[in-house]
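Thread: Newbie trying to understand structure tokens

Hi all, I'm a second-year student working on a class project, and my supervisor (Dr. K.) asked me to get a predicted structure for one chain before our next meeting. I've only ever worked with sequences, so writing a 3D structure as a token string is new to me. If someone could post the tokens and maybe explain what I'm looking at, I'd be very grateful. Here's the chain:
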Amino acid sequence: MKKIIRLVGLVALISAAPPALAAPIHAVLYKNPQCSCCEAYAAYLQKNGFDIDFKPTDDLTRISAKAGVPPDLEGCHTMFVDGYVVDGLVPVEIVKKLLSEHPAIVGIALPGMPQGAPGMSGNKAGPLKGRQY
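---
Reply by user tm_fold:
Sure, no problem. This is what the structure looks like when written as tokens:
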């Protein structure tokens, strides 16, 4: 009888559905073909649950402008994710907060290539200051 109970328990355990894994967050990232920090940033995002579709371009300024990124907020790449624009090396926690809260904005940006931002080497000199728009 104990063997039957163990067998039934084992069958139930094996047939139970595995816990659902979170689906990756799909994003399209436009970048300058020569920019290595964008690749490091994408690897950082991939480690944090993102599926990145790379789009190399030599016309990033036009893509950023068309997406509504103000010129003073342009970063080294422009990413489109879930209807939002993310420009520059924005930390993944901020991107995920944007996606979970769904504010009525076009996007967020961390302009330039500040040391300490994801994808950049070096120590962070101070708090990273990005903006929404």
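A couple of things are worth pointing out once you decode it. The chain has a mean pLDDT of 79. The longest helix spans residues 2-15. Feel free to ask follow-ups in this thread.
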